[in-house]
């Protein structure tokens, strides 16, 4: 089952695959988390319940990682895995998840942000 949620901070709407859990069980699980990484591209140092509006249980299925990657590419993102970032760039620092460094070939300075796929894989853009 999918639970419809909306982030109060950025307004993004998305679905959480909750399996056979009830909404109350999901809320209890979320209470135990002390940080929140929103698909809307911000990270918070408090639990997700402070930021989420819990909606109704919907139908359908969550996006797979390949479907998510295809969607992000259509939205104009060029996404790199952590391994690809290590291959192409030299890191000079990391701050709040932002990667700072330079391109190994061109020596051009770069700052890369990140987002996580539905399966939790980190991608930089």
End-to-end distance: 30 Å
Averaged pLDDT = 87
User: Rg to the nearest angstrom?
Assistant: 17 Å
Largest sheet: 3 strands, antiparallel
DSSP E strands, number: 11
What structural class should be given to the helix and strand makeup? alpha+beta
Order of helices and strands: EEHEEEHEHEEEEE
Helix content: 10-25%
Could you describe the 3D structure shown?
This protein has 125 residues and is α+β, with helices and mostly antiparallel strands. It has 2 domains: 2-58, no CATH class; 65-124, no CATH class. The chain has helices spanning 23-31, 65-74, 82-88, and strands at 2-7, 13-17, 36-38, 42-44, 52-58, 80-81, 89-95, 98-103, 109-112, 114-116, 122-124. It has a 3-stranded antiparallel β-sheet, with no helix packed on it. It has a 3-stranded antiparallel β-sheet with strand order 6-11-10. The chain has a 3-stranded antiparallel β-sheet with strand order 7-8-9, covered by helices on one side. The protein is elongated, with a radius of gyration of 17 Å. The two termini are 30 Å apart.
């Amino acid at each position: 089952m999918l639970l419809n949620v909306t982030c109060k901070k950025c307004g993004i709407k998305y679905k959480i695959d909750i399996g056979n859990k009830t909404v109350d069980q999901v809320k209890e699980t979320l209470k135990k988390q002390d940080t929140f990484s929103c698909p809307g591209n911000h990270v918070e140092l408090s639990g997700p319940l402070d930021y989420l509006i819990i909606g109704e249980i919907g139908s359908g299925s969550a996006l797979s990682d390949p479907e998510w990657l295809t969607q992000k590419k259509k939205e104009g993102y060029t996404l790199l895995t952590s391994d690809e970032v290590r291959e192409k760039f030299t890191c000079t620092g990391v701050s709040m998840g932002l990667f700072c460094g330079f391109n190994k070939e061109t020596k051009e300075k770069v700052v890369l942000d990140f987002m996580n796929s539905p399966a939790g894989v980190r991608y930089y853009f």
